[in-house]
Design brief:
Blueprint: E1 8-12, H1 22-26, E2 31-33, E3 39-41, H2 49-58, E4 64-68, E5 74-76
The chain binds iron/sulfur cluster.
Length: 79
Amino acid sequence: MSKISSRYTIIIDESKCIAAASCISVAMNTFSLNNRNVAQVTDENGDDAELILLAAQSCPTNAITLIDKKSGEYVWPLK
Ligand code: SF4
């Protein structure tokens, strides 16, 4: 499988994560739950950018922040 170059810096606010796991069901090659039942990034290059954005948008608590690596702009959550 060819590697997807990552577009986003992905930050997870552990204090907001309620382990709903919707991010994982959308982008299972990027996110997983760690042994404390908190989402973690397993591979920033795991899924394409559209899927990672959808995963962040699916989070019920907006625990996932995406920053565009090139521009430095905050992509999600919307301010
Ligand atoms: S969707 Fe949000 S709350 Fe659910 S596991 Fe992912 S980061 Fe945590």
